């Protein structure tokens, strides 16, 4: 198995931000995004990285940036290794896991779209028949397909837990016009991706988008429709009424739920078998979606 990369440094370049998964370097006119093999679950970065994960995230994000650019502009410039090497030097650790992107002002809300009832949405529905304050029909079960995709924003946290919020709370943070704009764009991108993925035998149950402002223009940023930011289910195994098999980090979450862990830092190490199978799931998602 390929050696995993958890921490990425570039001699002579200062990191402007180190997120849960990505390293960000400021090149002046642009940013360099590098996807590590770190994995976060329950908003905690685990000590065990997942080989090939960063390359899968970078490749899938580039794929979806290209597919969805007719719906919304995005920050992607290039992932060409030679072009990046001209800017920062020839560092093999960057190959296949880095991209140059436009600088913008990230919005302080994560834009989650749910097409199926799962995760924290299912937990809330069981208590109140709502998700982020949105009333849903009676009689839904875990993994039910929703009548229409719903927009369920959350706060954004570099460390600690993101918190689900209502649309009204998103309006307070972003203002009404901007909140409505990112809601409509997020739902449009989700519907397009859902329909495309369906032709590849994958259900996109839900996903998380991030947007930013380039001047006064709203653009799609960060990562798009990856196994880190989405729930991918095999369509031929879909059975509402319980958890679903997945091509994403839900496999790791399910393992972690069996442990006596309070979901606070530090996270537990992962066994070799869980790491291997997680790599396989990420790679299969990439292969299925991009053919």
Shape: globular
- Tally of contiguous helical segments: 7
For the sheet with most strands, the description reads: 7 strands, antiparallel
Radius of gyration: 18 Å
- Beginning-to-end CA distance, first to last residue: 22 Å
Name of the CATH class of the largest domain? Alpha Beta
Oligomer: single chain
Poorly predicted ranges:
none
- Structural class of the helices, strands and pairings? alpha+beta
Q: What is the β-strand count? A: 16
CATH architecture of the largest domain: 2-Layer Sandwich
> Which sequence of SSEs, written as H and E, runs from N to C?
EEEEEHEHEEEHEEEEHHEEEHH
Estimated share of beta-strand residues = 25-35%
Write down the overall mean pLDDT. 94
CATH level-3 fold name of the largest domain: D-amino Acid Aminotransferase, Chain A, domain 1
Which short descriptors sum up this protein?
Phosphorylase Kinase, domain 1; alpha+beta; D-amino Acid Aminotransferase, Chain A, domain 1; 2 domains; seven-stranded antiparallel beta sheet; five-stranded antiparallel beta sheet
Walk me through the topology.
Blueprint: E1 15-18, E2 22-26, E3 30-35, E4 40-41, E5 44-45, H1 53-68, E6 76-78, H2 81-88, E7 98-102, E8 105-106, E9 109-116, H3 119-128, E10 130-131, E11 134-135, E12 145-151, E13 154-155, H4 167-174, H5 176-198, E14 202-214, E15 217-221, E16 230-234, H6 250-257, H7 272-290
Antiparallel strand pairs: 1-2, 2-3, 3-7, 4-5, 6-7, 8-14, 9-12, 9-13, 9-14, 10-11, 14-15, 14-16
Helix pairs in contact: 1-7, 4-5
Report what the structure shows.
- This protein has 291 residues and is of the alpha+beta class.
- It has 2 domains: 15-102, Phosphorylase Kinase, domain 1, CATH 3.30.200; 106-246, ATP-grasp fold, B domain (D-amino Acid Aminotransferase, Chain A, domain 1), CATH 3.30.470.
- Helix content is 32%, strand content 25%.
- The protein contains 7 helices and 16 strands.
- The protein has helices at 53-68, 81-88, 119-128, 167-174, 176-198, 250-257, 272-290; strands at 15-18, 22-26, 30-35, 40-41, 44-45, 76-78, 98-102, 105-106, 109-116, 130-131, 134-135, 145-151, 154-155, 202-214, 217-221, 230-234.
- Strands 8, 9, 12, 13, 14, 15 and 16 form a 7-stranded antiparallel sheet that branches. A 5-stranded antiparallel sheet has the order 1-2-3-7-6. A two-stranded antiparallel ribbon has the order 4-5.
- Helix 1 (53-68) packs parallel to helix 7.
- The chain is globular, with a radius of gyration of 18 Å.
- The mean pLDDT is 94.
